[in-house]
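[agent] plan:
  1. take the single chain provided in the ticket
  2. run structure prediction with default settings
  3. attach C-alpha cells to the ticket
  4. add a short note for the reviewer (M.T.)
[agent] executing step 1
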Amino acid sequence: MAEKICPVCHKPLKLKEAGYPMGSALFKADRVHVDIYECPECERVELFAAEADLVKCPKCGNLHSPKEACAVCALNAGLDAEVVK
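[agent] step 2 finished; step 3 output follows
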C-alpha cells in the first residue's frame, strides 16, 4: 500500500477506517467501500477506494466489508418483517 500524502500540508495521512461502506443498500450499484484517511497535522479527511478485500454474501451475492453484515440481506429481512405485521 502506497503512502498517502495530504494535498494541503503534504504530511503523511493516517488510516482511520478501512473498507467503510458508503451509499445506498437499496441500489447496490451506488454502494462503494472506501478507506478513510485523516491528516494528523491539518485534520483534512481524504477518501480512497478501499484496498481491503471484500467478501461476497452467500445469500444475495452483494459485496461487503468482512467487518459488516450484508446490508442488502439486513434490509430485506427488515422489510419482510414489516410486510408480515
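[agent] step 4 note for reviewer: Residues 14-84 form one domain.
[agent] ticket updated
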